[in-house]
Write a structure and sequence with these properties.
GO terms for molecular function: gentisate 1,2-dioxygenase activity. Helix content is 17%, strand content 30%. With 369 residues, the protein is α+β, with helices and mostly antiparallel strands.
Length: 369
């Protein structure tokens, strides 16, 4: 018998540890429903499983298809107040149509036409941009224009005014990542409009933030305080590329430094703390040698991977895909992940690991390939 009182619906269950389904028990359950109560003994298997059972599913989005739809959107959908951004979110098939890549992470392709502005606003959510291809757009964060180019990882920490302007004669697309689902679920979102147009339309090669902060191993003495999010506006591809190449070169020469054989990885970090670039998001870049394979890894928390360059295979749980430049893969909590490179394979990864580490709920399991 299933009761129909909304929003709580209880069902008398058979099985180990369950009481006999008597009329008195049904009456007790109806009393629970009326008072919006749920007894633990009927739900413990779902609430406290022996290992994570995420609602999100592993899924692959093809960049070529996303880009085609974004280009069509550029012809049909204006950018301006009301919609704010021409951004198209990845919707995980296990999350009931919500525009979330995972329960905590939002990922989208954003598209800006030539000579077009995205208006200025700010919000509680932390955001970043990662550029798979193209250039010509500057994102202006708190009045500081930051050039966006292939391979660059750019930050927009929460509550910073930001807009974008495309100074090129060609459109540009990139990956947006935010903690929108986490902020939404915790009921902590604020949003505020800024000017309709970006005030500073200059196009400097380096932002003011980079000139102050982006010198390896050096920190301005004038800025002694730890900052919640990294003050580096852009982590440039030439530095990321060199770091990955050096790790693999050192490995070839017999020196330590790689994550595992043939697998180099770097984590973008906050120079004022040594920790993650933002409180809720971890970002990394990985490189596998041609023909190499990663260990199989499970982690509490979810991640999104994007192929920056190269080809290979990604296996998540029982699903496996051939991947190419720009393709995106959602990896739900505690699902085994293995990556195999065809050519040299570069991948960008972002995850919600900082949340679970702060909650002391993180767990990692690595099995050798």
């Amino acid at each position: 018998m299933t009761a129909t009182v909304s929003p709580v619906t209880l069902q008398v269950k058979d099985g180990p540890g369950q009481p006999d389904p008597t009329p008195e028990l049904h009456e007790l359950y109806r009393g629970f429903e009326q008072e919006l109560l749920v007894p633990l003994w009927t739900e413990i298997g779902d609430l406290m499983p022996s290992s994570p059972r995420p609602a999100a599913r592993s899924h692959l989005w093809r960049w070529a298809k996303l880009l085609g739809l974004a280009q069509r959107s550029g012809e049909l959908v204006p950018v301006g107040r009301g919609g704010e951004r021409r951004a198209i979110a990845l919707a995980n098939p296990g999350l009931g149509g919500a525009p979330y890549a995972t329960p905590t992470l939002w990922a989208a392709i954003q598209y800006l036409n030539p000579r077009e502005d995205a208006p200025v606003h700010r919000h509680t959510q932390h955001a970043f941009r990662f550029v798979v291809e193209g250039e010509g757009v500057w994102t202006v964060v708190d009045g500081d224009p930051v050039a966006m180019r292939r391979g660059d990882f750019l930050l927009t920490p929460g509550w910073r005014f930001h807009g974008h302007h495309n100074q090129a004669d060609t459109p540009m697309a990139w990956l947006d990542g935010l903690d929108i689902p986490f902020v939404h679920h915790t009921g902590s979102s604020f949003f505020e409009l800024g000017p309709d147009k970006v005030a500073d339309r200059s196009t400097p090669d380096r932002s003011r933030a980079e000139r102050l902060w982006a010198h390896p191993g050096l920190r301005p003495v004038s800025q002694p305080e730890a900052q919640t999010s990294s003050p580096i506006a852009a982590y440039r591809w030439e530095h990321t590329d060199a770091a990955l190449a050096d790790q693999l070169d050192l490995e070839a020469a017999g020196h330590p430094g790689v994550l595992e054989p043939g697998h180099a990885a770097v984590r973008f970090s906050n120079p004022t703390t040594g920790g993650d670039v933002m409180p809720t998001i971890r970002a990394e870049m990985h490189r596998l040698r041609a023909g190499g394979s990663s260990a199989t890894r499970r982690e509490v928390g979810s991640a999104v991977w994007q192929v920056f360059d190269g080809t290979g295979r990604v296996r998540v749980g029982e699903r496996e895909w051939e991947v190419d430049r720009g393709d995106l893969v959602a990896v739900p909590s505690w699902q085994p992940l293995t990556i195999a490179a065809g050519s040299q394979l570069d991948l960008f990864r972002f995850s919600d690991s900082p949340i679970f580490e702060r909650l002391n709920a993180d767990r990692v399991q690595v099995d050798a390939s």
